[in-house]
Amino acid sequence: MDAILRAEGVDLFYGTHRAVAGADFALQAGEVAAVMGSSGSGKSSLLYCLAGVLPATHGAVSFDGTAFSTLTDDELSTLRRERFGFVFQYGELLPELTVEENAALPLRLAGQRKAPAHAVAGEVLGRLGMTELLQRRTSQLSGGQSQRVAVARALVHRPSVVFADEPTGALDSANASAVLEEFLRLARDQGTAVVIVTHDETVAAHADTRYTMTDGVLTQRVAT
Ligand SMILES: Nc1ncnc2c1ncn2[C@@H]1O[C@H](COP(=O)(O)OP(=O)(O)OP(=O)(O)O)[C@@H](O)[C@H]1O
């Protein structure tokens, strides 16, 4: 099967510092891949290249057979907005919006009207146990609740790939594993592939494929 997301020989330089060094990566539709490695090893930098947020200095990244380098900035923005979802360590929600409004944002940005967008967001939030909190401002949520909203927002438009950078890194371990399991169950149910950057071996254990980043060099770990 052809990979939905593929990186070949990707380098990312910050000035003279080579943060990503010759990375090869392939992700199938619906696959969950974890990228582990110590602090500063280049995991987030790789994620930004794979998501088309930073252009690779050398090498190529392609989505569904189309190299990012052949797209205009507008086309790449549209691809990121419509086909990708993002979850970060601290949720990165809009604090003045409600839970429902935050989760519905990708649909609203895609031009959907409020009522149907909120109906879909409400359904996804319900699957994450957030039905009672739909009208609450996200500034008034716990860490675990915030991450559930971030997960809903990343999945609500049924993207092909979600990029998650330490998605449960700010939570205590019981909360972290609950949110991670709900996140991956929803993603797998809708066939969304996931790339998770993590320091945490227990997070990586949930993935189908595991990689290790060492000083910018990405290596696939062979299952034992
Ligand atoms: N914008 C930048 N400009 C210059 N150097 C950077 C920049 N961003 C990251 N770096 C450097 O590139 C290297 C890789 O950083 P990156 O954030 O990708 O690592 P990481 O593995 O995600 O780390 P952490 O686990 O601590 O988040 C580090 O040495 C970092 O200091």
Descriptive report:
By secondary structure, the protein is of the alpha/beta class. The protein has one domain: 3-Layer(aba) Sandwich (Rossmann fold), CATH 3.40.50. The chain is built from 7 helices and 10 strands. The protein has helices spanning 43-50, 73-83, 99-109, 114-127, 143-155, 173-189, 201-204, and strands at 5-14, 17-27, 32-37, 58-63, 66-67, 84-87, 161-165, 193-197, 209-214, 217-221. Strands 6-7-8-3-9-10 form a 6-stranded mixed β-sheet, with helices on both faces. A hairpin with a 2-residue loop joins strand 4 and strand 5 (66-67). Helix 5 packs parallel to helix 6 (173-189). The longest helix is centred in the C-terminal third of the chain and has 17 residues, at 173-189. It is globular. Adenosine-5'-triphosphate is lined by residues 14, 17, 19, 37, 39-45. The site of adenosine-5'-triphosphate has 11 residues, from strand 2 and helix 1. Keywords: ATP-binding, Nucleotide-binding, Transport. Pfam families: ABC_tran.
In a few lines, what is going on in this structure?
GO terms for molecular function: ATP binding. Residues 5-224 form the ABC transporter domain. The protein has a single domain, classed as 3-Layer(aba) Sandwich (Rossmann fold), CATH 3.40.50.
